[in-house]
Amino acid sequence: MQWTEIAVTTTNEAVEAVSNILMEAGATGTKIDDAADFAALQPTFPGELLDKSSVPHQESGAVVTAYYPATVAITELVPDITQRVQMLTQFGLNIGSGAVLTKPVAETDWATAWKKYYHPVRVTRYLTVVPSWEDYQPTDDAEKLLVLDPGMAFGTGTHPTTALMLQALEMTVRGGETILDVGTGSGVLSIAAKQLGAGDIYAYDVDQIAVDAAKANLDLNPIAKDVHVAPNDLLKGINQSADIIVANILAEILVPLIPQTWPLLPEHGLFLSSGIIADKYPLIRDNLVKTGFKIIQTLKRGDWYGIIAEKPGADD
């Protein structure tokens, strides 16, 4: 079968949003060639000699590539994708050139080619993201594996915003907590929380494609088989209380989410948030404080911020 490749040239900070746009436009899969992922590439096991120069990679920025069957009207699709990519600047994202290019490609060329770009990456002290096809073994007893299929959209777990939330979960989960994962995407945060000892987890995403991707990734991680996943618009209509609420989404979407989290958290409950580019940090911080939250800790990777906020108790 003949397929069409649509490649969007962008930046590290915009790859997940661009992937989402391409999947919503009907892509059967995406691959992300990100200079940041290459920079984080490490040997799979101690003592392995990794010749990074032999690995195809982006020198800078990122390219998000999607594939569409011959039945899709590409000439009608490209202008819509281009417009939606350009609109990401309204959310404070740097999209780089945002160029959208197309070319025909044979099915056998794309079905497995993207696999060479993904390798196990130890994102935090305890958490390692592992592509589903890799036969990777933990290097020590403390290492926990998050098995993902990067062929789906919604990220590989190594983007700074996701890494910040993995770090925040590692810092706050003590065992047995009920967690709400808002905008679950790939499901990586729910998987991580389970690996860290969380109890019941309820994961939501407004996008059914993301819900399906999350379910597929949860199935790859037996420890996360009991995570509840469902489509939902943020926390509208949700009455499930939680010890921790986690959200890795754009800052503009965090703003309406913040007041929704307040009634669902007990005293000293935690709200972990990321997806906050540097110039949006004051906006989120101020909205958290206005709602009543206490900022416990601010995390930072590059131009991205994560926040650990607490609902104060009567004794505070």
TrEMBL record:
A Gene Ontology biological process term: methylation
Xref: SUPFAM superfamilies: S-adenosyl-L-methionine-dependent methyltransferases
A GO term, aspect molecular function: protein methyltransferase activity
Keyword vocabulary terms for this entry: Cytoplasm, Methyltransferase, Ribonucleoprotein, Ribosomal protein, S-adenosyl-L-methionine, Transferase
GO cellular-component term (any): cytoplasm
Pfam families recorded: PrmA
Residues the record lists as binding S-adenosyl-L-methionine: T162, G183, D205, N248
EC number: 2.1.1.-
UniProt cross-references to InterPro entries, sorted A to Z: Ribosomal_L11_MeTrfase_PrmA, Ribosomal_PrmA_MeTrfase, SAM-dependent_MTases_sf
Compartments where found: Cytoplasm
Top-level taxon of origin: Bacteria
Catalytic activity: L-lysyl-[protein] + 3 S-adenosyl-L-methionine = N(6),N(6),N(6)-trimethyl-L-lysyl-[protein] + 3 S-adenosyl-L-homocysteine + 3 H(+)
Chain's role: Methylates ribosomal protein L11.
Family: Belongs to the methyltransferase superfamily. PrmA family.
Protein name according to UniProt: Ribosomal protein L11 methyltransferase
Organism of this sequence: Furfurilactobacillus siliginis
